User: Fold this.
Amino acid sequence: MACDQLANVLIKAYKNPIQMQADIARYSKLIFPKDTGHNEEREEKLLQRCPPGHEGTMLIDKPATIVDVYGAIIAWYLPDALTNATQKEIWAASDFLSPSLEKSVKVDSNWRTSQEWFKQSSEHGHENLLDLEVSASLKGPSSEKILKSIARPAAIASVALRVMHPEQYWAGLQALDKRQKARNSR
Assistant:
């Protein structure tokens, strides 16, 4: 049922492309990782070089893909892709993460904008795929409950990723395979 509903919505979205007169490849070459959208002068220059490619606001009320001038998919809009049961499973699984999140997220800081969380060094990053580690939240006492509760929703998300971004899906599988081989060779 859940996979059928997801597949139907993905098909409807794919068959309903909404084209913008924007070149996403050109735009992506002009932006920088530090572009936050808060520098008005920088944003104005980007708008002049890469206008948004649409006139006004468009209300999208059914599954669709947003594509650029060359047909590259920029975004998927997938209302009702997940069944109510799947949404409830995800919500219930998130309850198991609450204790870990309460310990890790500080009330007085914003993790999205804190440069401390996004350092490019071996202290906060990975030198290669072989040194990947399991998330701290999955090393705690609730790890088995978390993994069991997200197994089905994660499988459904993998199906969606396989359709929407096959390169990322296969890269993920390759990373897991390399990690497993590295563990077996220890």
About this structure: The mean pLDDT is 81. Residues 143-164 form the longest helix (22 residues). The chain has six helices and three strands.
